[in-house]
Amino acid sequence: MAESAVSFLMQYLGPLLVDEANSLKGVDGEVRELRNELESIRSFLRDADSRQDTDEGLKTWVKQIREVAYDIEDVLDEFMLAQAQEQNGAHGCIDFLHTLIKQFMVHHQTASSIRDIKTRIRTITERKDAYALNRTEQSSSSNSMNEPWHDRRLDALFIEEADLVGIEKPRSRLMKWLVKGDSKLTKISVVGMGGLGKTTLVKKVYDDQKVKKHFETCAWITVSQSFKGEDLLRSMIKQFSKAKEDPYPQGFDTMTKFELIQVVQDYLKNKRYLLVLDDVWSEHVWNFLRNALRASECGSRVMITTRKGDVASSSCVGPSDHIYHLRALSRRNAWSLFCKKAFHSHEKNSCPPELEELSRSFVNKCRGLPLAIVALGSLLSIKNQTYVEWEMIHRSLGLELENDDNLRSMMKILSLSFNDLPYYLKSCFLYMCVFPEDYAIKRMKLIRLWIAEGFIERHESRSMEEVAEGYLNALITRNLILVVGQRPWGQLMTCRLHDIVREFVISKSREEHFFASSVEEKTTLCNRIRHLSIYSGENFLKYDTFSHLRSLFIFEVDGLCTTSAITSFASLRLLKVVDLENVSVEIFPDDLTSLLHLRYLSLENTKIKKLPSSLGKLQNLETLDLRGTFVCELPAEILKLECLRHLVVYRHNRDGAYRSFNYIDAIKMPAGMGNMRSLHTLEVVEAERGIIAEFGNLTELRRLCIIKLRREDGNDLCTSLDKMNNLHSFEVSSMDEEEVLDLHSLSHPPLPLQCLRLEGRLAKLPEWIATLHNLVSIRLMWSRLRDDPLKALQSLPNLVELELRRAYDGEELYCQGRGYPSLKELFLIELRGLKKVRLEKGAMSSLQKLKIRRCEELVEPPLGIQHLINLKELRMQDMSEAFLKGLRNEGDEQLVDSIQHIPLIRYFDRQERTSQDFSRFRRTPRRLKQLSGTANEEQ
Question: Which overall architecture, per CATH, does domain 421-500 show?
Fold first, then answer.
């Protein structure tokens, strides 16, 4: 983490020396020297974070360097703030003279501060070097004083069968892959977050007698994070030799890497072997061992356990290879495991009634993570089993994680994943704790926040958002972030931290003075913290002067009004992020516009009605989120925000129903929007005359949403779209249901376009849509086409989602064989003239979800639906009585047979507010199961 702070500064100082050359006169020499000083210690910090856990001296040094890095950032931010204020305030000769004097003083003070910091760095380094000679002695003394932590990874190898739950199905699957299948060398990767029980599962499979009998020789190797290839090979030779009681080859201990590889190859030649590589951290492990494990036809297997998805995917690339994603325990199994550990002295491991509510809460916090359940259950088993004591532990769980031996050992295992992160991911990962427990974090919100905080490194060929998305995917691949919501084409929508991982992150952040929240005791808070979250309604900021704060989040919790939590922002002059989402504030805080470093401002779902003209002062603002506010128009001064990248300014029409035509209202934009050339996101803008033509200047746009387009403005819009070569998502709606969308003149549609939504009448489907091979989602709404749109779009190779809502007035939809090869979800909604849907064999071969709603003339499911072998859901709503009779087996038996392969078949009647389950219907009449539902269930 210290290296993250230093690397951030290195990234920060480089552009500063170039872009602010005039401002830094008199200071630039000091800044350059400081940059060189930091670079000289950064290489040493590469592995400092992982070693400081076992070296108290190193830990102290790292802490001091981190605080120095924070101080450097503060000095430079204060300097740039003073510069900006001087430039904004100078008018006339007297003001100019005053500005020169003040500027001299600021430069002098900044240079003096930097010299002091350089002296501190040298002193810290000299002190570290002076005590380096005694480090070995001190380290051994320190280790003797500190109790060693118990590595629970070793426990995983010796768990008794009676203590296991929920491994029957995964064990059966793994054993099948081991003893059956291809005779070629097969790799099997078991992947999941730390503590899920990967080692336990694989060890039980490895020890099974059927497995032992199937293979001639077996070896189990635990791979360290800093593995050495020669050591792995020697360990393999020892274990394989021991299994066959063969002697080691002569000169075994002095063999070269090449010689060891040859020994392994010779020994395993024509043998059916099983090799387990446990806890693999790097894809280099398999890349190295593959030379020794040459392909054979003996049915040999290699099993790998890893926390990292990229390790699993890079190892298992063959057609017969398998990747098994180990999931968390089910609620039932999690409860069973907890009771075994917490109540092992009770008859049948039963939970006392008075402790059940608290016990359920403990189990919920563990989120099915066996390591956490075992550690927490073991802790509680030795406590007095009274409600008072258990409630106290529940309330102070974060403190228990740091102090209790069982839980501390668990946290050490989690810390291995954190220490393995490259420096540029550590700040991003720690930042996740600013959100409350169980908070579903939106993908783009997180990406924009990371960018605003300066965590994302610049890349020549990719945008900051693309680099940030790569960081997010890397954390997901490492199983440190859980995916909550995902689009059909795999794009992340929302994510969160596992509760126990979040406790670890909070503990680490508190130690680093990185983050604090209002939940913590105020006496323990350090005013050097960088990021603060407020979860209560009280005026929390009055307790401390958080002058070092870079981001402030205020979350509305349990309906508490948090208006009183917002005090003057003037003292928080270095803030880069302010997030007031859902806060009950009605007036824009005036002193927000004095935060000249502000890059991210979210007022989403507040009650603010008007923005001040002083908004134009926020020259560094990159994201302005006004979704769901009462703001009706933007001030003209917003055009001064040259750095603005994301402008989100729509609200849902409170008078219109969800999904009614034009259910979204836009905020009135000032003329001149075409000058905001840095914009990547613009949603939603009303298509006023003059503004449409200006869009052509916004060539950096990735997402554009327009409403209330007139037919006569279609040509101007197409001309603008022709220039948007970076557009990924485009949504447009017409003025009303009768207004035609004229988009036929688009000659050079944006090739990167992935998502397209057209809402309004179309005389004809634009031909250019069928040429966009990168499209993954199309929504046609109120189009009322006369020609079959299903047939027109069937050649799009990557289309995953298609929605037709009042999009077709014809009687039949038809799809040829091999049409829509990638389509996973199809929605046919309110196609009121539709009488028949025909799908040839081979069409929509990947379809998983089909929804049909309010197609009153349709009397039967699509013809050919029996060929959709991957279809998992068929959902219907408000269909005709004739349609229902067919499903009830009152009609053609062949029709009923055609849908028997679909696991989930549900019918919802919105008027009756009931849901009927046809999933298990098998020809013979049976009473339909009535399930409660709501009118919103199928919307």
Answer: Orthogonal Bundle (1.10)
